[in-house]
Specification:
alpha/beta, Rossmann fold, binds guanosine-5'-triphosphate, binds magnesium ion
Length: 323
């Protein structure tokens, strides 16, 4: 089906009916910054605000996908649907995983209640966090009960992505040593749950102590600190506890006015981000901006970024208003 020959209502209806091909194509449009993707989002938007969005982040190979796979099984047992987005994966969704993992994920991929998608668009002008956020919007409107976003590492993009989740899970593994110090900035404030995965490996107590110590430094009362859950994702040990926590938080969220508060906060971010991006895009095309060229002017012609920014903005405004 040629998606461009349909109107946005028709497309969105297909998506709601569970047409996965149309859903995937729409996600591609959003990823590519195609304006038709935005048109579909405009139609879909009024049906958002119902999904529980879970962000899961951690070092490469920490076991995130294996955990997501196990959580998916638990979610499906409750008859709920789930969409999974693996953002910029270091390897295909099941990671460098053994064949067993791949087979397990295949089980989910033929399940109508599960939708899995990888996104690897780092470097796009709009930014990875921003296109991921729009894809979450679409999946929410599509009617998934849970949306799980898996990201690797803890850079600014990941923090931004995890920020647009209701519940953020940070996965660690024993033997991380000093890494725990390195990741504390930024991620500590946004984590709701810490998972110590691979707790079949030595060094679990050490990492737990370090984590507790760092959390204590925040000065928050104990009940406000994120929970620490130990798991062995491969065998499923501890995953039931993790799922119960996730489900409990999800139910609390949906039954309290917290959801609408969260939703409002996320909307503020979305609105500002969208305006910034649209404005910048207009500006960029209007003045024919070539970032590389401007940077070489700074380096070779002794121009400053401040001067160039001012000049470009003045010329943009002149073109807009003829001042
Ligand atoms: N021993 C042990 N191995 C595990 C555990 N969890 C995951 N693994 C293995 O660790 C490897 C990486 O697991 P993934 O689930 O792909 O990890 P990931 O964090 O998604 O990896 P990337 O997406 O590539 O960053 C696989 O071989 C898993 O089978 C665990 O609890 N214990
Ligand atoms: Mg993975």
């Amino acid at each position: 089906m040629d998606i461009f020959s349909k109107d946005t209502e028709e497309i969105f209806n297909e998506i709601k009916k569970g047409n996965r091909i149309i859903l995937s194509r729409t996600i591609t449009l959003i990823e590519n910054g195609n304006p038709f993707g935005t048109e579909i989002l405009k139609t879909a938007f009024h049906e958002t605000g119902k999904s529980i969005i879970i962000g899961i982040t951690g070092a490469p190979g920490a076991g995130k996908s294996t955990l997501v796979d196990k959580l998916t099984t638990e979610i499906r047992k409750k008859g709920k649907t789930v969409a999974i987005i693996a953002v910029d994966p270091t390897s295909p969704f099941t990671g460098g995983a053994i064949l067993g993992d791949r087979l397990r994920m295949q089980k989910h991929s033929i399940d109508d209640g599960v939708f899995i998608r990888s996104m690897a668009t780092r470097g796009n002008l709009g930014g990875l966090a921003s296109s991921t956020d729009d894809v979450i919007t679409l999946l929410d409107a599509a009617g998934f009960d849970y949306i799980i976003v898996e990201t690797v590492g803890v850079g600014q993009d990941e923090i931004d992505i995890v920020k647009s989740a209701h519940l953020s899970i940070v996965v660690m593994v024993p033997g991380m040593g000093d890494d725990i110090q390195a990741i504390k900035a930024g991620i500590m404030e946004i984590a709701d749950i810490f998972v110590i995965n691979k707790s079949d490996h030595p060094g679990v107590e050490k990492i737990e102590q370090e984590l507790n110590f760092i959390l204590m430094l925040s000065g928050k009362p104990k009940e406000e600190l994120p929970e620490i859950i130990k798991t062995v994702a491969t065998s499923g040990k501890g995953v039931d506890h993790l799922f119960n926590t996730v489900e409990k938080r999800g139910k609390e969220l949906l039954s309290s006015n917290k959801y609408s508060k969260y939703h409002k906060e996320l909307l503020k971010d979305k609105l500002v981000r969208h305006m910034k991006e649209k404005l910048f895009e207009k500006f960029r095309t209007n003045v024919g901006l070539n970032i590389e060229e401007e940077v070489s002017k700074i380096l070779n012609e002794k121009k400053s970024p401040y001067q160039i920014a001012e000049e470009k903005i003045s010329s943009f405004l002149e073109k807009c208003y003829g001042d």
